[in-house]
What does this fold into?
Amino acid sequence: MNLTHRCALLCAVFALLLAAPCMGAPPCTTVENLDTGVCFSHIQTAVAAANSGETITVFPGSYDENIVITADKANVILRSTNGAAATTIVGMIQSSSGGVAWPVVDIQANGFTLGGTNRGFTITQSASHTTAGGVSGVHIHPNVTGVHIIGNTVRDLVPAGTPAIASSSAE
It folds into this structure.
């Protein structure tokens, strides 16, 4: 290969390298941290990776998982892209061996936002896990403040009378 061909080849490779960032990754279709641009397959994984104050968006679909917002996730926003009619969190309200019951969404962080105007979720439980009682679809821990729960639908919780949202500290 002569010098002219080498230069042409190097120029072509260089041009491709420069163009690669412009091509970008395929768009996220599941769960995305808007502040980092990272896509996730599960809501809980995205929440666990989030830093305080970051926004996580969830694309339409049904997500079979329980969500725990730990205390170090202050001011995190979790919202859907298309609202409660299009995005469902199907959790397992269950009792551990010690008798502790777990809600579908467990909020332990101050300033957490779940949903938004036309950005909420349908929150329900798996039909195969209906034995636990005394819990809620969404639970806000005591002394947690500044929580915003907007545009969500909580439904089909068993046993009958299970509260949709439980805590005296929600705004």
Observations:
- Helices lie at 3-23, 43-49.
- The first helix runs from residue 3 to 23.
